[in-house]
Amino acid sequence: MQIYKVGGAVRDRLLGRPVSDVDWLVVGATVEKMQALGYRPVGADFPVFIDPKSGQEYALARTERKSGRGYGGFVFHASPDVTLEQDLIRRDLTINAMAEDQQGNLYDPYFGKKDLDQRILRHVSPAFAEDPLRVLRVARFAARYAPLGFRVAPETLELMRQISASGELQALTAERSWKEIERALMEEQPQVFIQVLRDCDALRELMPELDALFAAPQDAGMHTLAALEQAAKHQQPLNVRWACLTQALGTAINAVNQRFKAPRECQELALLVGEFQAHCHRAQQLDAATLLDLLQKFDVYRRPQRFEDFIAACEMDARGRGGEDYPQGDYLRGAVAAAKAVEVKSLVAQGLTGQALGAALKAERLKALEAYTQSAIAQRN
User: Does this UniProt record's set of keywords contain Hydrolase (predicted)?
Assistant: First the structure.
């Protein structure tokens, strides 16, 4: 029985990057032997065990063969006679197919270290094409390692095109696709993820609405990538990045939200940005009534952070167009402050309740916003 550190932990150590998760591979063991040593089985599809002392996962060496469509269409075989090389060859990229033994010796049968040094993302074997999820994974790795100068090998990009043309991407579940999209959007250069998907024709299969923007006038597709790049540069959260990605899709935003079952806060912000982004860009030209309606739509009194995220997404859009500052953001924050300054207590003290109280509160907020807009105009003049 031999134990190896495999995959990302080896890759990132060689790159000098922080190692967060460690995957362990066990060669020459059986399920019974692992259990006898105290390891707790947790794998449903293939034997994976938890070390009760460290809590880390240990997987038995295995082979796999394609048995159906999609990410889950595989039959796995784990036994003591499966070698390290047989296990590593089933992995996606050569840089993920390296192993280290417990003495720190590197095992690199598929030349991952060479590709690491040359900054190349290359598939290990033709079996790469059997798993459509790998198209998204490679695009995500391209986004992660773009700052280090990594690129996708031409032959790997060609295999990704073949997967896109096969229809296999349609077999991916929304949950698996979203997991990759979410992780890619939070990388340092998420726009590279979208660009690689487009380069291999996968964007046309997964998000045809977004792909169509690249054929639209005024460089709508490239601007979307620029807005997403700005969102990452300014370390915006996931919902803002998703809104930046979908902001130009118009009426198709909801369909894309539903297709990938995006989290509710991502869906909500994307729809609001799509509908009201123009209001934000021309905030200083809005009259008081329109401003009040905007604040009501966002429920800024109970959900202030959602409005802040809206402003952030609009600012990233503007910066993607070459803007250096965004005074509209502070202007809208001032409008929120003016509306919130209206005290409910004084109206209640007048004996107002129910609909009458709501109408009076709205009227007072409108007055406050009228005063705010007039003051802002005077200051600009």
Answer: yes
Phi/psi for 93 (5° steps) reads -115, 150
- What is the tens place of the pLDDT at every residue in 205-263? 999 999 999 987 778 999 999 999 999 999 999 999 999 999 999 999 999 999 999 99
Report the C-alpha gap between 370 and 381 in whole angstroms. 17
Q: What is the mean pLDDT of the chain?
A: 93
- What element of type H or E holds 166? helix 154-166
Give the rounded distance of the alpha carbon of 154 from its chain centre: 25
Alpha carbon 211 to chain centroid, angstroms: 17
Burial class (CB within 10 angstroms; exposed 0-12, middle 13-18, buried 19+) of 374: exposed
Q: Collect all residues with Cβ–Cβ distance below 8 Å to 134 and sequence separation of at least 6.
A: 92, 123, 128, 160, 163
Statement: residue 72 has pLDDT above 80: no
Q: What's the pLDDT score for residue 47?
A: 84
What is the C-alpha separation between 93 and 141, in angstroms, rounded? 10
Look up residue 294 and give its two tokens: 């905007």
Burial 79-111 (b: 16+ CB within 10 A, else e): eeebebeebbebbbbbbbbbbbeeeeeebbbbb
Count of CB atoms within 10 A of residue 61's CB?
Answer: 26
| Residue 39 DSSP label | P
What residue type is assigned to position 194 of the chain?
Answer: I
What is the token pair recorded at 139?
């695009």
Distance, in Å, from the CA atom of 190 to the CA atom of 210, rounded to the nearest integer, reads 15
Q: Which helix (H) or strand (E) holds 2?
A: strand 2-6
Residue type, 378: A
Residue 120 phi/psi, 5° resolution? -120, 135
How many angstroms separate the CA atoms of 190 and 183, rounded?
9
pLDDT recorded at residue 43: 67
